[in-house]
Write a structure and sequence with these properties.
single chain, mainly alpha, 2 domains, 79% helix
């Protein structure tokens, strides 16, 4: 039964996580922390920190971690199967739909509205990720501002910004 729950839980994540990357987080949190209590809130955030250092989709890393924690290898497989099935089918359908109807104003408006909702959800998760008291320290605020500027206004690869921040962070105490 737990394998079915893992599959269906991550199928819902894959089905409704429009926008990619951090858009998945509120949905994953709702399923694995609130609905099934497979992870605590603290563990959820710890796993997020861990997932940041590995390449690949966040949802796959959460599906793998949660599935393995709950039911070993078969749990990881069930969670990832659910996680991947919906996006594959939805992207296939959306590609056909978009190519045919992309110039219709209602379709453009629908996608624009979805983008705004994803933006709001990403901001919400960002505020959950940071201990707000950290931002009262000047050095941390400077790191946030410089990172945002580098990411937004240069062609420096985000991975390089992250690696450099880790190195700098190792020396800042």
């Amino acid at each position: 039964m737990v394998l079915v729950q893992l599959f269906l839980s991550f199928l819902r994540v894959g089905l409704f996580a429009i926008g990619g990357a951090y858009a998945f987080l509120p949905l994953i949190e709702k399923e694995v922390v609130e609905r099934y209590q497979w992870l605590t809130k603290e563990e959820f955030l710890d796993v997020l920190g861990i997932t940041k250092i590995f390449p690949g989709a966040i949802s796959i890393k959460y599906a793998t971690y949660t599935g393995y924690k709950i039911s070993g290898i078969w749990g990881a497989i069930a969670a990832n199967a659910g996680n991947l099935l919906a996006p594959v089918l939805l992207v296939l359908f959306a590609s056909i739909f978009y190519m045919k109807y992309k110039n219709i104003p209602a379709v453009k408006s629908a996608f624009g509205t979805i983008e705004l909702v994803m933006f709001a959800m990403i901001i919400s998760v960002a505020f959950q990720l940071v201990n707000m008291s950290q931002l009262t320290q000047l050095k941390n605020l400077v790191i946030v501002i410089i990172s945002a500027i580098l990411f937004s206004y240069t062609k420096i690869h985000p991975a390089l910004i992250i690696i450099c921040a880790g190195i700098i962070g190792a020396f800042l105490k």
